[in-house]
Amino acid sequence: MRWLLYVLTFLTVIAAAFWAYHENYKTQAALGEAQSVRSDIADARARLAVLRAEWAYLNRPDRLRDLAEVNFERLGLMPLEPDQFGRVDQIAYPQPPELPITDPVEISSAGAQEQEP
Counting beta carbons within 10 angstroms of the beta carbon of residue 64, is it exposed (0 to 12), middle (13 to 18) or buried (19 or more)? Predict the structure, then answer.
C-alpha cells in the first residue's frame, strides 16, 4: 500500500513539473509576443511623428503661398488674402431636429391642486 502512495506521489510530482515547464514556455512566448507588439507600436509612433513633421513642413503658409503664385496660370489659383477667411460666428449651424414624443406619460394633478374646504 505504501509503494502505491509513493508511485502516485511521484507521478503527481512529474505531472506538476511537466505542467510548470509547459506553462513557463507559454509565458515566455507570450512575453516575447508582447515585447514584439510594444516594439511595433514604438516604430509606428516614430513613423507617425515623422509623418506629422513632414505634413507640418509641407503645409507651411509661405510654401503654399509660393506654390500658389508659381502655379497660378496652370491651376488658376488665387493668392491667399486675409479677407478670404470668415469668422466662426458667421457659420450657420443647423438646428437640431425636434424629437417626437412616442409614449406620452400622463401625470396626475390631484396632489398638486389645492383642496377646497
Answer: middle
